[in-house]
From TrEMBL:
This is Uncharacterized protein. It comes from the Archaea. The lineage of its organism: Archaea, Methanobacteriati, Methanobacteriota, Methanomada group, Methanococci. Keywords: Membrane, Transmembrane, Transmembrane helix. The chain crosses the membrane at residues 156-174.
Amino acid sequence: MKNFSVISGLLAIIFITLAISQVNGLSGAITPPKIDIMANASNGFPQDVNSIIYIKNPNDFPVRVEILTTGDLNNSEKVEVKINENNFTLKPGRTVRVNITFTVKENDKYEGNILTKISPLDYGDNKEGVSLKASVVLPTKVAIMVVDSENYIKKMAITAVLIMSMLGMGIMLIRKYI
């Protein structure tokens, strides 16, 4: 019976120690998760198109933020990406607005991602802060479509006329057989 009490006591101490121990996690938030842009080719090239993303640090410790691009956004001959603020420290609970300018150089469709990499500022070398060695990467999907406004309007008008013609023919057939 005495062994049972000792074992129960040890298990209780271990359980309480595990329940009280602090767990630090790393997270982040970005808005919006997707950017869709339509540019008008009749304005000429190169053409600047602006967008904004918001990055939030919901952690209780500062983080390092690095912004990278992938896909067509890495092809500087076709589209150039300018990020106004990159490789910065974000304090706990703060949100930062990052302006992004896409300079479109050709009439084309572009797809890629803006990757927001969030890492702990202090890797715990001096026994303070976070002892994580991980990063969180949050993607923002980007799609840019450059359209020639004259051709786009003509295509839309032709599509509208075809749809109205089909509806008119459908109504005539319904009247004839009903």
